[in-house]
Amino acid sequence: MLYDFDDHNLFITPKIAYFPAAMGGASRHMMVNGSSHRIAVKIKCSDNELFRVSPVYTLLEPGNAQRLQIVRDPGPAKTDKIVVIYKTTCASSARDAFECDLGAERKVIALIAKEDVTMSIAPTTNLKSILRQSVQKS
């Protein structure tokens, strides 16, 4: 299943990323505003010592997309998370929109660092790749 049933205001893909614990790595994700309103987005991480994210704040106009870059430094194997906080806004800056967290919703991206992963990977969301994999398994 490629889509959430619960909320199409902000679509995030992929929702999980794997990193080699000993080497660290990077993962790219896509955030898409599926609503008819401007959305302010704020990114939080469970471990700011190991992870860097860009952008931390952004505004998404209706129908627009923004790439989210997550970089992990080398460190212990463990599971962390990115929390994507978002809300509709008419503010001119995403930072200003979050002076008050009222009305904010949340989505989570799982960040898994393992010893047996040799490179940063995220499950594919490319439809051609998914179809090719399902044909090869048949």
Automatic annotation (TrEMBL):
<feature type="domain" description="MSP">
    <location>
        <begin position="9"/>
        <end position="138"/>
    </location>
</feature>
<keyword id="KW-0963">Cytoplasm</keyword>
<dbReference type="Pfam" id="PF00635">
    <property type="entry name" value="Motile_Sperm"/>
</dbReference>
<dbReference type="InterPro" id="IPR051774">
    <property type="entry name" value="Sperm-specific_class_P"/>
</dbReference>
<keyword id="KW-0206">Cytoskeleton</keyword>
<dbReference type="InterPro" id="IPR013783">
    <property type="entry name" value="Ig-like_fold"/>
</dbReference>
<dbReference type="InterPro" id="IPR008962">
    <property type="entry name" value="PapD-like_sf"/>
</dbReference>
<comment type="function">
    <text>Central component in molecular interactions underlying sperm crawling. Forms an extensive filament system that extends from sperm villipoda, along the leading edge of the pseudopod.</text>
</comment>
<protein>
    <recommendedName>
        <fullName>Major sperm protein</fullName>
    </recommendedName>
</protein>
<dbReference type="InterPro" id="IPR000535">
    <property type="entry name" value="MSP_dom"/>
</dbReference>
